[in-house]
Amino acid sequence: MSEEKLPESHGSAGEVADHGDPFADPGLPAHEPRRTDIDERAAKRAERQVSLMFVLSMLATVGFIASYVAIDPDKIVYIFPLGHVSALNFALGLTLGVALFLIGAGAVHWARTLMSDVEMPAERHPIEADDEVRADVIQQFKTGAAESGFGRRKMIRNTLIGSMALVPLSGVVLLRDLGPLPEKKLKETGWKEATPAKPLQLINMSTSQPMTADDIVVGSLTFAMPEGLHVHDEDFQQRIAKDALMIVRIAPEDIKDDKSRDKGFDGILAYSKICTHVGCPISLYEQQTHHALCPCHQSTFDLSDGARVIFGPAGHPLPQLKITTDEKGHLVATGDFEEPVGPSYWERAR
Description:
four-stranded antiparallel beta sheet; 14% strand
């Protein structure tokens, strides 16, 4: 680059005022032009740099969406020096962070190299603006828009619009987690494998042994899971979140709901353990009132009356599983719940 292209060769727009009084207004420092102000080649180079940042931001946003779709949420990877981390969380954080950073970095680089940097002092004035001030503000806005090169530098404008338009797609993709896609996975549980011809045994979650009617005494509370489900299964947590049962025994004459009595066996009733409010596990039982209490938000269900809601935010009763005994005296289920377990959701029919 020739010497005449250097900013210092173009002199200064003004000088700092020299006053004998040290408290006098020193004025503005001398304005020095930047290299991009006097060399169009340098300005073009800065324009390409800013555009590159915006393009890389768009690619990072595409990477965010691809990571969200393609990476298994359960995949764990080792990344130095973070150690073992979720591959999905790391990819989402990295790509979204890069996308946002490059938009900001591109905007800063654009402002520092291509937009006007001439100091424009403004005198203090009353808050209320008169017509002259408003006209001046509008004119300054137009001048700033023209000096920013937003209209003239189409490459920067187009890549900025592209990067800013793509970034919100990251949030749109995340809307998928507001609820499941229309499928049957929330309508059915592991008890769907049970049929009258081939029932499923109720397994005590504490002992992992089949349960008999004699094991359940009046006033007790026992938790059960379906036969074939084991705590060491890879998908145990996902399955038990729907399959868990709450087993109680109530004197038959104390059961108020005939339909509930018919689904049970000799006063033994099997209800879903999953609260119908937000899905918390219910574990508190009052044997004298037959009330089950959810510890999260105090929804209370009357197990002697079809587990109807008598207090709290839960929207509907706990689903009840129809049970009986097999030839060996083991408690078994002969089918799935008649309605979905847990909280309400968009595709729930009832």
